[in-house]
Amino acid sequence: MKENKNLLLHICCAPDASIPVPDLLAEGWNVKGFFYGSNIHPFEEYKKRLEALKILINHTGIDCEILEYNPDEWLEKIRGLEDEPEGGRRCEKCFELQLEAGACCAKKSGLKIENFCTTLTISPHKNVNLINYLGEKISNLYNITWLNKIWRKNNGFLRSIRASKELGLYRQNYCGCIFSKRDL
Questions:
Q1: Interval 96-147: pLDDT, tens
Q2: What is the bridge-based pairing of β-strands 30-35 and 63-66?
Q3: Residue 179 and residue 91: Cα distance in Å, rounded?
Q4: Any idea which of 17-21, 38-42, 174-178 has the lowest mean pLDDT?
Q5: Cα–Cα distance measured from residue 92 to residue 145, given in angstroms and rounded to the nearest whole number
């Protein structure tokens, strides 16, 4: 592990961060969260997820950068992929947008963040190999170190369900975008 212990953790939602945040803190990382959120639809859903994130932040004591909610920009960036199936090229582009925004935040931070990770790999519904590939690729472009973690290992997802209940975190039933909601 590098001497610099500052790490930016991309947080897709509070329930999925309920295990990575305490685990990273226990490993000695100085964790700063990053929440993208522009992929989440509708706005009422975004607000529920943001409130859950605030509960987690308060519980763990981490600082978190919350990117401005801009769903129109997200929709523009995934234009042409609207009819892709869940888990297809649209999701790949969405992961890429979120991770690139996180890497950009890490480089802009005054904390000299040189390490980067995501909570996306806790979900049993997501392609962890793709996520870690994208994270590594984007991190290399921004000259930061990608921490390759698969949070769903060792019952991470089940542990996150329990932790979410204990903390009273809102837990959604779809990934977040208008298209994943459509495909329920």
A1: 999 999 999 999 867 689 999 999 999 999 999 999 999 999 999 999 999 9
A2: parallel
A3: 10
A4: 174-178
A5: 21
Output the six-digit token pair for 137.
């690729």
Map out the domains of the chain as residue ranges.
6-182
Structurally, at CATH architecture level, domain 6-182 sits in 3-Layer(aba) Sandwich (3.40)
Report the C-alpha gap between 107 and 104 in whole angstroms: 5
Token pair of 183, please?
């495909």
CA torsion 87→184→94→177, rounded to 10°? Answer: 180
**Whole-prediction pTM value?**
0.95
Q: Are 24 and 169 in contact (CB under 8 A)?
A: no
Cα 117 off chain centre by: 8
HEC profile of the chain = CCCCCEEEEEECCHHHHCCHHHHHHHCCCEEEEEECCCCCCCHHHHHHHHHHHHHHHHHHCCEEEECCCCHHHHHHHCCCCCCCCCCCHHHHHHHHHHHHHHHHHHHHCCCCCCEEEECHHHCCCCCHHHHHHHHHHHHHHCCCEECCCCCCHHHHHHHHHHHHHHHCCCCCCCCCCHHHHHCC
Residues 59 and 116: their CA atoms lie apart, in Å, by 22
